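yo

u said u wanted the structure for the complex thing, so here. seqs first:
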Amino acid sequence: MTRLALQLVFAGALLASVGVKPVCAQTPATPVDVPTSASWPKPVEDNRVLNYVIFDQLEGRTNGLNTSFRWDGEGWIGTDFNKLWIKSEGTVINGIAGDGDHEILYDRPIPHLRYVDWQAGVRLDLDSGPTRAWAAIGMQGLAPYFFNFAPTLYVRDGGRVAGRISGSYDLYFTQRFILQPQVELNFYSQADRGRGIGTGLSGLDGGVRLGYQFSRKFAPYIGYTYTGVFGQTATFSRLAGQPTSAPRFVFGVWVWH
Amino acid sequence: MHTAKADDNSTLTRRRFVQGVAAVGLGALVDGKLNLASAETSAHAPAVLTGNHFDLAIDAHHVNFTGRRVRALKINGTLPGPTLKWREGNTVTIAVTNHLPSESSIHWHGMRIPAEMDGVPGLSYAGIAPGKTFVYRFPVLQNGTYWYHSHSGFQEQLGLWGALVIEPRDKDPIEYDRDYVVLLSDWTDTKPETVDSNLKKQSDYYNFHRRTAGTFIEDAKNKGLRSTVADRISWGRTNMTPTDIADVTNATYIYLMNGNPADANWTALFMPGERVRLRFINASAMTLFDVRIQGLPMTVVQADGNCVQPVTVDEIRLGVAETYDVIVQPHEEKAYTIFAQPESRGSYARGTLAPRLGMAAEVPPMDPYPNRTMADMGMGGMAQMKGMKMSQMPGMKDMQIGGNSNNSMPEMKDMEMSAMRRGAIEPLAGMAPFPQPGPHTTRLMPPPTRMLSRLTETTEGEVPLRVGPEVVGIAMKTSPRLHDPGDGLNGNGRRVLTYSDLRALYKGVDGRPPTREIILHLTGNMERYIWGFDGYKFSQAEPIHLKLGERVRFVLINDTMMEHPIHLHGLWSELENGSDEFSPYKHTLLVKPAERVSYLISADTPGRWAFHCHLLYHMASGMFRTVVVS
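structre next:
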């Protein structure tokens, strides 16, 4: 399983090198008799390494009786063309962590697409339930009309396949009031009773949040979310005495750095 | 502080080089008398240093423009650095000492000097290491208004710049009684590294004119729902927005005139009837300034240090790094506001022309926030072409179909061919650099014996462009927009200077036709904040090679939605604006969205020269090439 993940990462790196543009020569290089030194700095450093962390969800969810804590964040370190991407999400209810999903991905722009990167790496389901490891390959970026989307395919031993699609849209009411509808769908090819997951569409997490940007990097929000499980997963939930849908009011903050 | 020496040169005594007068506690030389400014205003002006030897010290200091005390970089303890006043024909020595903990540099913007004196770390030299002194020494072979600035990292944003004023050796064709430098700049309390990373992570970080639900409703009311939806669709399809005017705006910037915020009201004095020369220099990192003086027409007499035939206008747009000298002649004994609003509006730089200190005139309201148009997107005229056959389209030759832009511009080429037939010559290898056009210069024409020699012109440089991470769009229709004053300036009721107005005072010195044409696309991806030429960042590209002595045409095609002030170091860029032998000599050309401009270059000075967009964060993101002349 780990080997498979590594192979995928390796394949990703190969793909990456295919995507590298060749250097472009204006004219055939001719000998240049002007002084220069290898020790000089570059006139511009256009491959600066930056780092980024954002929480799209950092929130309490409540229906008046129970309150849960939910986070969904990601970050990267790297340059325009090569990034190490980390994603993490999870929910804590009564001290029990669920839906824990943590990914380490290599990220690179897709050639000939303007706004979309591909990503490959590893996903770990790490929470209070049994741990699972997956190889991951997916895309993330901006679809036309400013839709954020990120479909990802996961594979683990035994030919198990999972998929996830997440998307969101920032609707500006004013320059600072933002309404953000968001949805995440999960699919599994085979049931995993240990984690209470059935085949097919297992779960949906969607919500609408209204935030106010006090600054670009800090925006408290309120909203409404709906978490539901479907099909076989719903059956497992009912058997475990758990609800199959959880509408909640949320309050939280969007932050990035 | 008061370092300006009285000019002892008899030809110059007639004119007074007055520094910004309203200097608190500083004496200002007016009519040979020392006037003490009232202490009401904190306005100051850069010191003026004259002579042939200069010592400049770069150091970190603090400034407080906004109520916050933050770090800035200064030259000889001031921001702007001192104005250096040179004299054409002299050899100047400038010892620059770097007191910063990091490498620094000074580049002499617009100066035609040996490449190793040009001051670009990595191309001319290694830069000036911490604690070290670099001694620049070069002959001054030109005159006019220029400026200098750091070429290291983001130091320009932090204040490392100042004005250069070079007195002509001969009688100045421009007559004036008073002379002021007006340096325009943008300042942010945020560290420039943070501004850069903010743009990389959220490119519209500083845009507070986004389209919202509110603007949708407003537009639907005014223009109808259908056209509003169609408009949103046409922009949204490619994730672009017409409100993308400036990457960095007054959301973080305050705008300065000679280092003074608008409130400080930097003041230049005049006596009614006097001719006042204002040397406008856009020393900002990212800001295009629209400059006007309420109630006072300006006569443009010089552009980028080269004299132009006087043209009187109400307003001038200064691209970053451009300079314009104007003459104004106020006849009334009253104050006039010098008003410089950025293209993205929101705030402004301001000063006053007044007969006495302490006077102020009304500050005009700012113009509305401009919007980009379909013409900026490179879609201009498409609507009218519906139903026409390709061959019938008059503009067809300008169009680049789909992703393939291998278009060699037949019109230009034909024109050039006929020129070539009249006389093509080979590069003059080993020639001395051409002089700046002046009253005594002659125009080099192709030798008649070489008439009707072989055709050598080639077009190259056009690489197949495809959209991708580095290229968001390829303009389908580009044209020289030389008559267009630019976004936000059309139909404002004022006479605005355009590039088509610029006609050199003196004939160009190189009359040879170009033997080569190099086409470069200005490309970028705003969302990713990647900028470059032909879809390549600096680190992905090889240098552009020019043969010493050759005459080349550069064609720039702007495929982006923004203006780019393109600066070539060391060589003049002779704008082809229809003035033929009177083409204006420029060092920086502001290229509008979807514009195609061409200019001629005489590659007469060997070396490795920087060629880049002068928007600081565009340059840092890859919009930079090396031009090697050898």
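The radius of gyration of chain A is 22 Å. Chain A touches chain B through 47 residues (CB under 8 Å).
cya
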